[in-house]
Amino acid sequence: MRFNSTRNRTSTVDLPTAVLTGLAPDGGLYLPERLPSLPHAFWDQLPNLDFIEVATDFLAALVGNALAKDELRATIEGAFTFDAPLVPVTDRISVLELFHGPTLAFKDFGARFMARLMLKLRGTRKLTVLVATSGDTGAAVAAGFHRVPGIDVYVLYPSQRVSPLQEKQLTTWGDNITALEIEGTFDDCQRMVKAAFLDPGLSDLGLTSANSINIARLLPQCTYYLRAMQQLRRAEPVVFSVPSGNLGNVCAGIMAHLVGLPVERFVVAQNANDAFEQYLQTGVVPERRATRTLSNAMDVSVPSNLERLTGLLSLEQLRHLTMSSTLDDQGTLAVMARVDRAHGVVLDPHTAVGWHGAEQALDQLGPGVQAIVLATAHPAKFPEVVEEAMGRRSDTPERLRSMVDRRKVAYRLPPDHQALEDALRGRLSALSAD
Ligand SMILES: *Cc1c(COP(=O)(O)O)cnc(C)c1O
Q1: Taking 80 as the threshold, does the pLDDT of residue 430 lie above it?
Q2: If both were cysteines, with which of 185, 294, 305, 353 could 251 make a disulfide (CB 3.0 to 4.6 Å apart)?
Q3: DSSP string for residues in 174-242
Q4: CA of 269 to the centre of ligand 1 (A)
Q5: Ligand 1 centroid from CA 268, angstroms
Q6: Cα distance between residue 79 and residue 224, in whole Å
Q7: Do 342 and 383 touch, CB atoms closer than 8 A?
Q8: Which atom of ligand 1 is nearest to the CA of 249?
Q9: pLDDT tier at 432 (50, 70, 90 boundaries)?
């Protein structure tokens, strides 16, 4: 399989180039040149296979002979050391728990796969991974790449805009992981990363991206949609409700669907940052600043993967396959309280936004469908919000508790290109460390 840019579908690159450069030279995002279709036998057997088997067969079809199948299997086995259980909550809504990895968010799937794949593909090249994060991405990437030989990681996060726990997960690794605290918004972080990639003066650093703009993050995320289907107990057609920010997660689901996974609709569930809704209505994304919300990993004003979605589907097709929902902070707290009271299930604020999307879709589509909400983070990552919604904290898993006592080390940077270049060139001593 070869990959091409969303901005130029005619020239193609191989898998190592797509993965190790992250962004195409023309500023576009890589997509597989074509989406394969898997044989009926694969879909028929789906319930009988284990997760690793399913993921290997599925991704083998997507990457083709770019990677030997046993190498692909080893990469997946090393990355997917935890499951994605589907938990029925009401008779029509189930929750797919994607937070059983080391940093308690779905991004562990993509980040762990990408780290192992990059290690395989890099050969003797030295790599510098840049990642802009609104919270969870950076944590997953730092954890996934920590102590991976020959790869340095710089995590850019917006100062004061991640939760205290998230900040610990970004800033306490050391070794090959450097945390950069940017005096700006997530959009600033993302802009700085994009500018660094396009700067020929930095090409000696072997810069690559670990954001969801990297196809290596997106591909493994397709597979847990299949894992959800394996665990279904009812036969009705499925609506997936996906808490969304940069639209990587829902893009992965849509790719799985285009390869053959039967899905009725995808709900793109957003907080007050409703760029996708605006896009569906008008065909353009308005220029706005991101709004801060309780579901901060979704505080994105310009979703980078929209370019992939529109590369895969026309606006009309998107309107057909997707629905959009939005929920403000007040509504998010109300959903968390209500689901806890009614079902004894604690949702994190992102998943609560997804829950609302599922309810709205079921209302709109009527009987005969069921909904799966992607639980993108564990509620213990957001103890302040959980307490505000429910008047008590949820249980904290040990792998999170152990981070709290570690010491934060981060370098503060203004949101400009020169500052980032200084940091990447190791001129960090001029910067203040917190
Ligand atoms: C990153 C993240 C999202 C948004 O995912 P996208 O792929 O950017 O749409 C939602 N919830 C949580 C908890 C996240 O960390």
Answers
A1: no
A2: 305
A3: -TTEEEEEESS-HHHHHHHHHHHHT-GGGGGG-EEE-STTSHHHHHHHHHHHHHHHHT--S-S-EEEEE
A4: 10
A5: 11
A6: 13
A7: no
A8: 7
A9: low
Tokens representing 397 are: 């898993």
Q: In angstroms, what is the span from residue 98 Cα to ligand 1's centroid?
A: 11
Residue with tokens 């308690």: 104
Calculate mean pLDDT across residues 1-22: 91
Q: Ligand 1, from 219, 222, 348, 376: best to mutate by most atoms within 8 Å of Cβ?
A: 376
| C-beta neighbour count of 262 within 10 angstroms | 9
- Choosing from 108, 114, 136, 270 the residue with most ligand 1 atoms within 8 A of its CB, the one to mutate for a pocket test is 136
Higher pLDDT, 134 or 107: 107
Going edge to edge, which strands form the sheet with 127-132? 207-209, 127-132, 151-158, 177-182, 411-413
- 1 pLDDT higher than 70: yes
> Considering only CA atoms, which residue is closest to atom 15 of ligand 1?
136
* pLDDT 10s digits, 153-204: 999 999 998 888 889 999 999 999 999 999 999 889 989 998 998 899 998 9
CA 10/CA 378 separation, integer angstroms: 42
Instruction: Name every protein residue with a CB atom under 6 angstroms from any ligand 1 atom.
Output: 105, 107, 136-137, 212, 243-249, 297-298, 350, 376-377
Residues 6+ apart with CB under 8 A from 236: 368, 369, 370
- Residue 140's CB: how many other CB atoms inside 10 A? 29
CA of 213 to the centre of ligand 1 (A): 13
CA–centroid distance, residue 248 to ligand 1 (Å): 8
Measure CA of the first residue to CA of the last residue in the chain; give whole Å: 45
